[in-house]
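Hey, can you fold this one?
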Amino acid sequence: MQANKSPRRHALAAPSGTGPEYLESRRMDRGLAVLLTAIVGGVLALQAPINAGLGRATGQLPAALVSFTVGTVVLAVIVGLSGEWSGLSSTFEVRWYYLIGGVLGAAYVTMALIAVKSIGAGGVAAATITGQLATAVVIDRLGILGLAQTPITASRAAGIVLLLAGTFLLVR
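Sure. Predicted structure:
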């Protein structure tokens, strides 16, 4: 990874954070990270059918807008309660592609809302996880977006193949 010529604050750095050392001190235990992520992932399976139900009342695109608006309000409260409002002042000090996360989220919510009627919540979850894992393995391999390079091993490739097979079995 090349050093930036101009200092940039990491999205997780507190106003007084000094870079990698600060971030390392805020790292969550790996086991807890896996557990909490799995729990949130399980709850996420509810998102598509909930949004589809909302879409029956509002229409699909308005449902996606309502979903993001509610999420934005919740995140604003969390940021406010955490005392990290000052971090927003450096929003535009990052490269442009770090600002498209919301666009990617909107695309996902909209697609899941539409697809759930055809392939069900299980199909949406399976296709989402398969797409995420396959893309993440490539991102790790290339070491892009500030991540360390991680080789594609036989077990990683097998995991992708098994997820593809599982997705096929769920949606056929």
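The chain has one domain: 47-171. Let me know if you want another pass with a different chain boundary.
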